[in-house]
Amino acid sequence: GPSVPRRDRENDKERYCRLMLILFKPWKEPANLLEDSLTWQDTFERYHPSFSELALEVMNNLQLLHECKDSRND
pTM for the complete prediction? Predict the structure, then answer.
């Protein structure tokens, strides 16, 4: 399947925010994810203070994996 988008690339930001909301924001219907017709990034930033410490740690670890792959390829 597709890889997890990077949070440090502007062209992946919307995909990254959408995926993190799907994984870590409680929801029952897709409409629960995107607030008030905002962008995925706006909704992510609004919800960010509510993410659990575990969710934030997982997000950081996902980004760290990308950075490790970059270092390996340099």
Answer: 0.88
